[in-house]
Design a protein that fits this description.
Elements (H helix, E strand, L loop, with lengths): L4 E2 L9 E3 L32 H8 L4 E3 L2 H7 L7 E3 L1 H7 L4 E6 L10 H13 L4 E6 L3 H13 L2 E7 H6 L1 H9 L3 E5 L5 H9 L7 H13 L4 E3 L6 H20 L6 E5 L4 H7 L3 H5 L6 E7 L4 H4 L1 E6 L8 E6 L21 H8 L4 E5 L1 H15 L5 H20 L4 E6 L7 H8 L10 H11 L7
Parallel strand pairs: 5-15, 6-7, 6-9, 7-8, 10-11, 10-15, 11-14
Antiparallel strand pairs: 1-4, 2-3, 4-5, 12-13
Keywords: Amino-acid biosynthesis, Aromatic amino acid biosynthesis, Lyase, Pyridoxal phosphate, Tryptophan biosynthesis
Catalytic activity: (1S,2R)-1-C-(indol-3-yl)glycerol 3-phosphate + L-serine = D-glyceraldehyde 3-phosphate + L-tryptophan + H2O
Function: The beta subunit is responsible for the synthesis of L-tryptophan from indole and L-serine.
């Protein structure tokens, strides 16, 4: 009988995170201070982040040691299994070999604790007492609540309003770990009050929730802000996924032909593929990196590579990224973690250089793929993760048509057991196929073209 799970021992747990910045052919476009139009200085970020994370954000060291205290917490669920999807292969009748890296085995059910634990630790050792953050579907909020509980920090989460009501059990999980959770936009911040004055029925967005969380952090001396995606140090912490995956594939003498992941802000996909990037840059690998997003928020497939704010109100530095415009409010799809107007600058640079490909899918097609996976492999995927699964199925079918025995590996970024309501709607044919608003994208993109860095 062939082995289904490729496992590493705790002794084989990576002890360093991989930093891709020194291996890129050129430096990333720097974050810009919107007030001066000049590159932002590291010290400008001190009201928001602890110095240790700022240093990681700009570091040119290829390897960053993982503190022992963080490794000990990681051992609660890491290393995670790499699993051969034999039943899915049989169902699709494909010659492709399909593997998935199962990040759903973490305490919160997703990849998010990989950076939440690290960020909580570095804030704790610098004397921070309280963290604020935003969350979409709630995976990041529950991960930070978990991490803050471990290191004795207070935690406040601004949860996108539509997801707050769509996914109440994520909110319950955050409460169990001691976090405060509020539906964003709220009346607790100037940013929230401004949005509600303009649109009392605003469904919220990650951009709005980020504005609220940052404002909360910079107006309280004992508080810092924590981000679950987009920034360099977040993708750095997530590279433990790709590093483990490389080891596991080497154990079975496999080389991936296609690496696939869903993309909202880019953390799970970035962490998954970045350890494989150097070999591709050197021409030693022809692996295809495939980023998957929803058509309702098509950042990489419909956005422009421009400088934009990371939040809606304009409290963040300007980042060079593919964006739909910081005022873009996506439709109310159930993949709340993918409803972000921008993407990680590292990932966007790789897309711009044609090193990463992107594809977008509609909501119903994604849920259909999720049901196929649940029926064959037995695990219910999060709606976000289901986007990756849809791409896997499409690539496997292509292999069937061409008779190519490709190795397809994807990141199973989280389970969907808190998304049962969405699955019920799909099974009862009540789930709508909402698409992006083309006119809204044109409008929001026009608004940012005159920002510093774009003129």
């Amino acid at each position: 009988m062939e082995e289904k799970k490729i496992l590493l021992s705790e002794r084989e747990l990576p002890t360093e995170w991989y930093n891709v910045l020194p291996d890129l052919p050129e430096q990333l476009p720097p974050p810009i201070n919107p007030a001066t139009g000049e590159p932002i200085k590291p010290e400008d970020l001190l009201p928001v982040f602890p110095i240790s994370l700022i240093k990681q954000e700009i570091s040119q060291n290829r390897w960053i040691p993982i503190p022992d205290e963080v490794l000990e917490v990681y051992k609660l669920w890491r290393p995670t299994p790499l699993v051969r999807a034999y039943e899915l292969e049989k169902y699709l009748n494909t010659p492709a070999r399909i593997y998935y890296k199962n990040e759903s085995v973490s305490p919160t059910g997703s990849h998010k604790p990989n950076t939440a634990v690290a960020q909580a630790y570095f804030n704790k050792i610098e004397g921070v007492k309280r963290l604020t953050t935003e969350t979409g579907a709630g995976q990041w909020g529950s991960a930070l609540a978990f991490a803050c509980n471990i290191f004795g920090l207070k935690c406040r989460v601004y949860m996108v309003k539509v997801s707050y009501y769509q996914k109440p059990f994520r909110k319950s999980l955050m409460h169990i770990w001691g976090a405060e959770v509020f539906p964003s936009p709220t009346n607790l911040t100037n940013a929230g009050r401004k949005i509600l004055a303009e649109d009392p029925d605003s469904p919220g967005s990650l951009g709005i929730a980020i504005s609220e969380a940052i404002e909360d952090a910079v107006t309280n001396e004992d508080t810092k802000y924590s981000l679950g995606s987009v920034l360099n140090h977040v993708l750095l912490h997530q590279t433990i996924i790709g590093l483990e995956t490389k080891k596991q594939l080497e154990l079975i003498n496999e080389k991936p032909d296609i690496l696939i992941g869903c993309v909202g802000g880019g953390s799970n996909f970035g962490g998954f593929i970045l350890p494989f990037v150097p070999e591709k840059l050197k021409g030693k690998s022809e692996v295809k990196f495939l980023a998957v997003e929803p058509t309702a928020c098509p950042t990489l497939t419909k956005g422009l590579y421009l400088y934009d704010f990371g939040d809606t109100v304009g409290l963040t530095p300007l980042l060079k990224m593919y964006t739909l415009g910081h005022n873009f409010v996506p439709p109310k799809i159930h993949a709340g973690g993918l409803r972000y107007h921008g993407d990680a600058p590292i990932l966007c640079y790789l897309v711009y250089k044609n090193l990463v490909e992107a594809v977008a899918y509609t909501q119903k097609a994604v849920f259909e793929a999720a049901i196929i996976f649940a029926k064959t492999e037995g695990i219910l995927p999060a709606p976000e993760t289901a986007h990756a699964i849809k791409a896997v199925i499409d690539e496997a079918i292509k292999c069937k048509e061409t008779k190519e025995e490709k190795c397809i590996v994807f990141n199973f970024s989280g389970h969907g057991y808190f998304d049962i309501n969405a699955y019920d709607q799909y099974l009862e044919s009540k789930l709508e196929d909402v698409d992006y608003a083309d006119e809204m994208i044109k409008k929001t993109l026009e608004e940012i073209k005159k920002l510093p860095g774009n003129v």
